[in-house]
Design goal:
Layout: E1 2-6, H1 12-21, H2 31-41, E2 44-52, E3 57-66, E4 73-77, H3 91-107, E5 110-116, H4 121-127, E6 130-132, E7 136-141, H5 146-152, H6 155-166, E8 170-174, H7 179-193, H8 200-210, E9 214-221, E10 224-234, E11 237-245, H9 254-268, E12 273-279, H10 284-290, E13 295-298, E14 300-303, H11 317-327, H12 332-343
Parallel strand pairs: 4-5, 11-12
Antiparallel strand pairs: 1-2, 2-3, 3-4, 5-14, 6-14, 7-12, 7-13, 8-9, 9-10, 10-11
Length: about 350
């Protein structure tokens, strides 16, 4: 017999121990993501736990309720990242958790959206949701140490990594001490891309919640930050959820030194896999990650109005491009103020 309940703060050790025991468990599944979401954006979280009568965890499903003003709500697993979804080695437990989530979404009058890094056909069967797989994670297998990794690179790639070093750029790894420099790069780059920027408080909450699992990397040109990113370590994988570079330093390729610094860190932590994060096949970020030897691994997102072909039911691509174009022309001060107010309600 099993029972399903909402996990509370006291369940964090139990929850995280289970996540770390599962092959599909990643940093976003950890309780730290829940804490960051609650502390910075104040969204309601519903972390569902299935356990035996003896208190053994059988499965989990982390959920966050996004309620934009005047718009419909979304119950998503998980927002602001690539994947979430049910974790359980038992098919029947997975089905029970999905059924529970469907009822919860209906009760809350919210759309249900579940993101997986592996196919999960039971989601469609139990919840009646469609699926899109047009995005991929870019993964690189890591050898025993960074010297072996360097030796595996083609000469062209090694030259690209050396370029910023020859130009005097320096990579630094830290934590809260580098937060301001990270955000200085991040906010400017997000405006250039036409995308609302996350609040500085969100990044700070992630660093607080993940503690030693989260690090900040910054590439400096003199005293000025030229590129910056966040890296999370969970089990045997290092993941980069956010990375940015300033266009005025493009000639020196600071992003090459940034990722090489992160790869060295991942090897030093004993990781066997490096997750470059989400990309769209064929686009610039995809090609950038591919040159490191990373391979695409499809993401499977389930929700209402999505088709297996990977094409959303309503193609809003052109509208999105127009919005991005307008956003990128707004003054930096305006987007710095408006961005976080908007971004907290965008679960991507």
């Amino acid at each position: 017999m099993s029972r399903i309940r909402i996990a509370g703060t006291q369940d964090q050790p139990l929850w995280d121990d289970f996540i770390l025991s599962q092959g599909q468990g990643g940093p976003y599944h950890l309780f730290a993501w829940k804490r960051a979401v609650e502390q910075s954006y104040h969204h309601e979280t519903r972390y569902i736990l299935s356990e035996s009568d003896q208190g053994t965890v059988l499965g989990v499903l982390p959920l966050v309720l996004i309620k934009p003003p005047l718009l419909s709500s979304t119950l998503v697993s998980l927002p602001f990242c690539d994947y979430g979804g049910v974790l359980s080695p038992e098919r029947e437990v997975s089905r029970e958790l999905l059924e529970h989530a469907s009822v919860m979404a209906a009760t809350l009058n919210a759309r249900l959206e579940l993101r997986y890094r592996e196919p999960a056909p039971e989601v469609s069967h139990v919840c009646g949701l469609g699926m899109t797989s047009q995005k991929v994670r870019m993964l690189l297998d890591l050898p025993g140490d960074s010297d072996q990794l360097w030796g595996s690179f083609k000469s062209k790639l090694r030259s690209q990594i050396r370029r910023p070093q020859k130009d005097g750029l320096i990579f630094t790894m830290g934590s809260h001490d580098l937060l301001d420099d990270f955000y200085a790069v991040f906010r400017v780059n997000m405006r250039r891309l036409g995308s609302p920027v996350h609040a500085r408080a969100w990044i700070e909450s992630v660093l607080n919640a993940f503690n030693e699992r989260a690090r900040v990397g910054v590439v400096y040109s003199g005293d000025n930050p030229a590129a910056a990113g966040i890296i999370l370590v969970c089990r045997n994988t290092a993941t980069v959820p956010w990375a940015s570079a300033l266009s005025e330093y493009a000639r020196s390729s600071p992003n090459m030194l940034l990722y090489w610094g992160f790869l060295q860190h991942a090897c030093a932590c004993g990781c066997s896999s490096f997750d470059f994060g989400r990309s769209t096949p064929g686009e610039g970020t995809y090609r950038f990650k591919e040159q490191w030897g990373a391979r695409p691994s499809p993401l499977y997102w389930y929700g209402e109005g999505l088709y297996d072909s990977g094409v959303p039911a309503k193609n809003g691509g052109n509208l999105r491009k127009r919005i991005e174009s307008v956003w990128s022309t707004l003054p930096q001060g305006v987007v710095d103020h408006l961005g976080p107010l908007v971004r907290k309600y965008i679960p991507l």
